[in-house]
Design goal:
Strand content: 5-15%
Radius of gyration: 16 Å
Strand order of the largest sheet: 1-2
Low-confidence stretches: 104-113
Largest sheet: 2 strands, antiparallel
Number of helices: 7
Amino acid sequence: MWREILNARVAASSKAQVAAELGVSRTAISLIVHDKYPADTRHIAAKVIEIYGRIRCPHLGLEISQAQCREYHSRRPPTSSPRAMKHWRACQNCMQRTMTVDQSSENSGGSKS
């Protein structure tokens, strides 16, 4: 899954742009795209999912990044805004929340892919 996302981003922009967004070298992106990367790809897979992976937020009704989802549900309860508190409460029981947590731990361990 993460490779398809990476390849689509490279096709939509450039290897150099994607490398800059992920904080890795252009060479690493090129090697991964051509399936010749010699090292473990788990750290890059996690970055791809984190930055480019999108999920539908049921509360907002929008697609947001997994990083945004994690930021919303893991922050402290906002006490200064009723709207923010409603959003935070929705996040605490949201099924997407569990998926972002599960997927991030899955990408930090496991097999080379």
